Amino acid sequence: MKPYTVTILQGGKRVNQTVLAASPDDASARIIAGGGIVLQVQERPARKEKRFPLNLFLQELIALLEAGLVVVEAVEALRESSRDGGTSLVLDTLVKKLYEGAQLSQAMMALPALFPPLLINTVASSEQTGHLPEALKRFQFYESRMEILRKRIKSTLLYPTIVIAAGGIILFFLLGFIIPRFSVVFDGMKNPSASAQLILWWGRLTQTHGSLLLAGCAAAVAGIVMAVRSPRLRQRALGLLLRIPALRQQHQLSVLVRFYRTLGLLLQGGLPAPDALMLSREILPATHRQQVEQVIRDVAAGESLSRMLEAQRMTTPVASRLLQVGERSGELPAMCERIAAFYDESLERAIETFSKIFEPILMMVVGGIVGLVVFLLYMPIFELAGGLQ
What we know:
The protein is mostly helical. It folds into 3 domains: 2-43; 54-145, Receptor-associated Protein (Up-down Bundle), CATH 1.20.81.30; 146-389, Type II secretion system (T2SS), domain F (Receptor-associated Protein, Up-down Bundle). It contains 15 helices and 3 strands. It has helices spanning 24-33, 54-66, 71-81, 85-99, 104-109, 117-129, 132-182, 194-229, 231-241, 245-268, 273-281, 286-300, 305-311, 317-329, 332-388, and strands at 2-10, 13-21, 37-43. It has a 3-stranded antiparallel sheet. Helix 7 runs parallel beside helix 15 (332-388). The radius of gyration is 30 Å and the shape is flat. It starts with a strand and ends with a helix.
């Protein structure tokens, strides 16, 4: 869906109206269906739009539904109270779909870029049971827990990134500005030491090929940025990092937290296990999707979910026992949520332990490299001072 500016004839005057549509023809058809006369259709210029406040929308929608409003009245009330143009446009599209007879999940399907498939399926399953507010609350809780997990992982990576970046800037300053100027001091030495010869060599190199070195540094930085943005290269880098046992364990825990929390949400909404597994598969990395696909085939053939997940190494002994209890008692959705909470606590402890060990080591390594450069810089000065004495 894209925003289009449609010029229509209304009361003998040209009036511009913004419409969300899949194509210019679709935008024109929407206006004509409402009885308007289309004069011109233009796609709005690309610009950075404000992100649709999904969490706020769900929170307000839940409050209105619990107050007794029907879905179309609740969404219409939110549209009338919205002051943001982009949000009003999205809500207007939902209202029009609802008045056309579509259910809320079907209206959300018209805007797949704004409403994730997980939310759409949660809403669709609750529409059959009549428990929409409870389903929206479950999804909102799910989103809040997943956001906490994302922030926790980002905060763990933030400190090493800052330390490495600061160390790189300091090294660039020392090698690019300080050492070349210090090399002039040792240029007249008759018998320079090894450290002085190294500084002299680097100083001459920067003087004769400084532009090439600078271009090489810029190319290296650009290559790193491109590698970070490339999904394929990121996947390869992740594969190399996951060879470290501690990182592999934390990554597996984060995958299991997302998987079981998503599976529990969908099962609570009333989806059959194969369908819930299929949707849960989409939030997993590519390395785990094949395992879930095998579980889906086995469960569809009548096998036990707990045994199939255990066979594909998508669980632990404790979680496997909880799944078996859930299957026998009929409380499988609640057990999935309990397993996710159990893994969440384990992941938090693992991240905290990893941070306490890794961060000091990283600081020592970066500090040691910078200290070595400074030591090589001052060593010839100490030798000169000793020679004068």
